[in-house]
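Q: Convert this sequence to structure tokens.
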Amino acid sequence: NKIEYSFVTDQNGKLSLAFFERASHRRQAIEPCCLADKNINETANKILDWAREQKLTSYNLKSLILRSNQKGDIIAGLFIKDKMNFKNYPVLPKMIGFKLYYSTHKSPASVPTEELYSSGQDYLEEEINDVKMRYGLFSFFQVNPPIFQMALNDIEPFIDEKPVVDYYCGVGAIGLALKKERQKLELVESNTEAAEYVEKNIKLNNFSNCTSICKPAEKIIELITSEKTIIFDPPRAGLDKKIIDRVLETEPETIIYLSCNLSTHARDLGLLLPKYKIEFLKLYNFFPHTAHIEGLAILKKI
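A:
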């Protein structure tokens, strides 16, 4: 439900959507993307048609981000290298929000320097476990909701009414989706936009006893205590050593660790095994047709 395209212009001047080749700066034209939701592919091609009508080339364009929800709604952000205005902008039935950004040559591909145009809403809404979740163009949100739901179903039996800390929570997709009625929930996220959506999602669902904390996980390890259940869903780098040390020191009863990098997952589990046993272990194919697999481990204190 999220695709980030680059652009390439061929020898005949034809503009195409593109991906970077692995471990390379070369761009490869692609149409369609077999990973993407069909609504994303349809919208991407319509925006590409618009860019061609404007006589834009890959020298003008940086990237295009598209996100969809399970209802088929789309939000999109187009990043250009020059400050440009246009007489018209893409208007599509399923695209409920569109933004045009100027992005300086000095920044990575999809970092906005200035917003040039905006229409519609800047968020999508998804419903998971009867919990409403809003998220924006740049917020971390699970990219494959049906598979994510399978992971949630496997996590749920290990969540009780003990206080929960959800680290690297994104917009709160795990912690809020598994919120128990009287349970205290603390949600930690370092991305400012995502943390703002955590606050919005708490209010959207009228949840009480929830706290959103916008800090890097390793800067707030004091939340890890023996009486809490701890959820980790870190980036590919895995857990900071300070977090591992804090877990081993305080010995929470249950650790739930969802990982997008099996290498750092295995490393971190190995560091925790002196005081924990693996109660549950499973792999999920969040990214079909790729080499990437996510892993879920549930650890119980020995």
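The first helix runs from residue 38 to 53.
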